[in-house]
């Protein structure tokens, strides 16, 4: 890096710093859960460094802070350092800080200059590159659902909806209500302000069906760029909530009697040479590629759900008649199916995966979903017959617990080849460690109903 490195900044970051002195740069990378890891350094030091080091073991850490025995079996757990290099196109403001601070996402390489296979951003880049080698450009549009809840500092207590502007708790079953959105006005104002300072374009904010549940839609675009934005957005939204004495949570199912939070992913694929959507033919009809992509989702999503639903809580979302799918049926403009085809013109024809939870790592969730579609395209898989009617009346055909999902993931060698075999090995070990940690905890339900009755 050089002293004039600020000339490499994207326009929103340049505008944020106009007339101001940059104090600090946060050098960050997403770990397996999607937590930002890294270092905060003075701006003057960042100007002098081309890279910095972090141990590769950050990808072996569970959500509780313990460790999965995932080190390379050939070398043992020796805490090897990675080389983290900045992607200056990701430089963006941290507008909630007390001083003038930028965040910059870094990419992870080993000492030979090869991408570290367990790094989530590298996993997504690997999948995108497989598409590009076929002459395709994948495009995604994610939707982010989350809850604004009252501060919860005692894990033994239930999570409650936040208090709205009216002085009453946020109400449930008020989907698309503008009055409900107004209840969170001060928080939403800060979300918009922070997003504008960071150069992010919000396509819309709506009230969802849960008490205090909101949805933010993002413009369609490059998968890596959109995953970067979601990674940043999670922190942005949390910071906006804290300013107003509440929490933002991205848990898949934070409140027992409310709907869960999803990260619906819309997919389309463009032909790089012609710029046309390969899901639509010259006359505007649906192509074989369109059906192959759906076939890939239906075939490989059961194994990928361990990535799309990465925690024990994730599976509480897949409940009949609760705005979350229970099977892999596909249908046109049908929100009861796991795979939905939204209404659109030929150029915007897309496939929506409704299975991913908002608790998944955005890089890994998008990578896994794209990987399933890629395998469908490459293997020319055909989907089942389009489902018509209420898919909740059918049988569930997706894993219902994390252990079952991990068993399917471990058997999916074709999916491993797309995502990266070393990533698959590390991911499975870390997630099984988390599952074992969960099974070691006795829940209040067990104490209440089993202690004196069995």
UniProtKB/TrEMBL annotation:
Residues 120-454 form the GS catalytic domain. Belongs to the glutamine synthetase family. PANTHER family: GAMMA-GLUTAMYLPUTRESCINE SYNTHETASE, GS CATALYTIC DOMAIN-CONTAINING PROTEIN. PROSITE patterns: GLNA_ATP, GS_CATALYTIC. The keyword Methyltransferase does not apply. Its cofactor is Mg(2+). It comes from the Bacteria. Keywords: Ligase, Magnesium. InterPro entries: Gln_synt_N_sf, Gln_synth/guanido_kin_cat_dom, Gln_synth_cat_dom, Gln_synth_gly_rich_site. One of its GO terms (molecular function) is glutamine synthetase activity. This is L-glutamine synthetase. Pfam families: Gln-synt_C (PF00120). The keyword ATP-binding does not apply. It comes from Alloyangia pacifica. GO terms for biological process: glutamine biosynthetic process; polyamine catabolic process.
